[in-house]
Design a protein that fits this description.
3-stranded antiparallel beta sheet, single chain
């Protein structure tokens, strides 16, 4: 190859490279600047390592911000949501089915009591007691009051006899249970009324729904 041709080609390539570099731009953290090719190892007098360190410092500062891009813990439209000092954040009252539920929404739902026409929550428990053979009264109606922890005067429980699984025992329980015709609740107790005094102990279960 002709040496003169090689030198000419090399100069041409250098000019093209310098022209290309003169058109290159870089982000200085604030605005775009034209890359200065006067020093292959520097940009505006800064070494590439310093530029990298400066850029990383800016990234670290941004990452550590507690209110980046106007973020807020308040329920503010069109703003990035962030946690407050207690780790909490607020949202507006939900409207659509896939909106974020707020605590007051959940609390209101939890306090909603179920009725025949209204879906809500109920409290439920199965309590137990035993009616022994000691009843008050010398003639009908005979009465017996038993303590039942958790029962209230306002409760209207479902009460039933508990069977043992032994036929003879259960037959006697069924007969004695048939004597009882009424139960009245009070706070912490139930009073039973019977036409005859049961002669066997009666284990019972009390289902309470509020």
């Amino acid at each position: 190859m002709d040496r003169r041709y090689f030198v000419l080609e090399t100069k041409k390539q250098l000019k093209e490279m310098i022209f290309f570099m003169a058109k290159m731009k870089y982000w200085n953290g604030t605005t775009w600047e034209i890359l200065d090719a006067k020093d292959a190892d520097t940009i505006d007098g800064k070494h590439f390592t310093d530029i990298q360190n400066d850029a990383q410092a800016k990234v670290n500062t941004h990452a550590a911000l507690t209110s980046a891009h106007s973020a807020t813990s308040a329920a503010t439209a069109n703003r990035i949501m962030m946690r407050d000092a207690n780790g909490r954040a607020k949202v507006a009252v939900p409207s659509a089915s896939d909106d974020i539920a707020r605590k007051d929404t959940v609390d209101n739902h939890a306090a909603q009591t179920a009725t025949l026409s209204n879906l809500g929550h109920v409290k439920h428990a199965v309590l137990t007691a035993t009616l022994n053979t000691t009843w008050s009264g010398t003639s009908a109606p005979y009465t017996k009051t038993v303590s039942v922890s958790g029962i209230l005067a306002t409760d209207t429980p479902i009460i039933d006899i508990v069977m043992s699984g032994t036929y003879s025992t259960d037959e006697a329980r069924i007969e004695a249970w048939g004597y009882i015709y009424r139960a009245v609740t009070a706070n912490g107790s139930i009073t039973f009324y019977a036409t005859e005094k049961p002669t066997v102990s009666l284990p019972i279960q009390i289902r309470v729904v509020r």
